[in-house]
Design goal:
This protein is an alpha/beta fold. It has 17 helices and twelve strands.
């Protein structure tokens, strides 16, 4: 999807009559379209192909010769057994960048396991550090391990394309959910590997910075504030009219504030409970330290900065009309990064790709559709 935003022509290969399983993930649906599917499939064309049919395999071979990149997320070894692995396609398309995304990697003891976000997040430690302090582990509200793996894959593909400009050769890229999750543990991993410190859950708080968390306000709203250095802590205390805390020996620097969080956080919490969220937002306006409300979806998509950043975009879908989509996160001064196509219907572009891109004759397409090799 990210590559599509940047202008790449994306051909999504789906199973005839079934398609991407996220097409069924709902409710909610708009008409017959899953909102989940709509959220992650813009700028793609849908081609339906039965990969088990020799004619279907031939279509993939022909696409490989014409394409720059192939991305696949089968269990390792599956496409090799079908004659569609990297070694097979590299022989006929040595320029092809072949990106495999799996749960655990192409080899090792877990290679044959199915990979799902929440399982990899659990095994990679994210669920262990997510949730209320002294409470149960919690899944992050969106599939962050999946999304981070996609971001790693995007960067890896771009790097491989740059290398191909120098060498003329494609290569195989292996990305997996577990390695992604372990990699993004960052300071949590360092704390354990270098200091032997086991991680724990802090709710909205932070293990190494205090205060840096949410506080409940008088109207049951929540405000997040962060004070990662002494200057910020002094500003926070001034805005809270708790200036005496700055000179308190228990809170002289971040180290002592972390060590004495059990006395500092209740004091701050009591103060935040005395005013409405809107009042605190006014008090902190222009203060120079990080702060903000915990927004629900209505508040997110009503936020003036979200609108200013053009994060709500519309696209016309062939069956359900106007679809609203979260816009691309990155802006370029000399390039386009935008939504070009709506999420596709299943097989919507099969005829276009086969006849327009690969040069099949109409009667050949009709015959394959009749035989179940494709659906149009």
């Amino acid at each position: 999807m990210i590559l599509g935003d940047l202008g790449a022509e994306i051909i999504k290969v789906e199973q005839p009559g079934i398609g991407d399983e996220t097409r069924t993930w709902g409710p909610p649906f708009i008409g017959k379209e899953s909102c989940y599917f709509l959220s992650i499939n813009r700028n793609k064309k849908s081609l339906t192909v039965n990969l088990k049919d020799p004619r279907g395999k031939k279509i993939i071979y022909e696409l490989a010769k014409k394409s720059d990149v192939l991305v696949e997320n089968y269990i390792p070894g599956k496409l090799d057994s079908m004659g569609l692995g990297f070694k097979h396609l590299h022989e006929i398309a040595p320029h092809l960048v072949y990106c495999s995304i799996s749960g655990y990697g192409p080899d090792g003891p877990y290679r044959q396991r199915a990979g799902y976000d929440v399982v990899a997040a659990a095994m990679g430690g994210l669920l262990h550090i997510t949730g209320p302090q002294d409470g149960e582990p919690a899944r992050v509200g969106v599939a962050m391990t999946d999304l981070a793996t996609g971001l790693y894959s995007h960067g890896a593909i771009m790097a491989a394309l740059l290398q191909r400009q120098k060498t003329g050769k494609g290569q195989k890229i292996d990305c997996n959910l577990l390695s992604t999750q372990v990699a993004v543990l960052t300071h949590i991993a360092s704390n354990y590997l270098n200091a032997g410190m086991e991680a724990k859950r802090w709710g909205t708080g932070h293990g190494s910075i205090v205060p840096y968390q949410a506080f409940k306000t008088k109207d049951a709203g929540y405000i997040i504030v962060g004070a990662g250095n002494n200057k910020h802590f002094a500003i926070l205390c001034k805005r809270l009219q708790l200036e005496h805390l700055v000179s308190d020996s228990r809170y002289t620097d971040n180290k002592t504030r972390v060590e004495n969080r059990t006395t500092l956080i209740p004091t701050l919490s009591e103060r935040f409970s005395e005013k409405l969220l809107s009042e605190w937002l006014d008090i902190f306006e222009g203060c120079g330290i990080p702060y903000g409300p915990i927004n629900n979806m209505h508040q997110v998509f009503s936020d003036p900065q979200v609108h200013h950043n053009d994060m709500i975009q519309e696209v016309q879908h062939p069956t359900v009309g106007t679809v609203k989509i979260s816009g691309p996160a990155v802006k370029y001064s000399e390039a386009d990064n935008s939504i070009h196509l709506p999420p596709p219907l299943l097989g919507q572009h099969t005829r276009e790709v086969l006849q327009g891109t690969l040069g099949y004759k109409e009667n050949e397409v009709t015959e394959m559709a009749k035989d179940g090799v494709i659906s149009v």
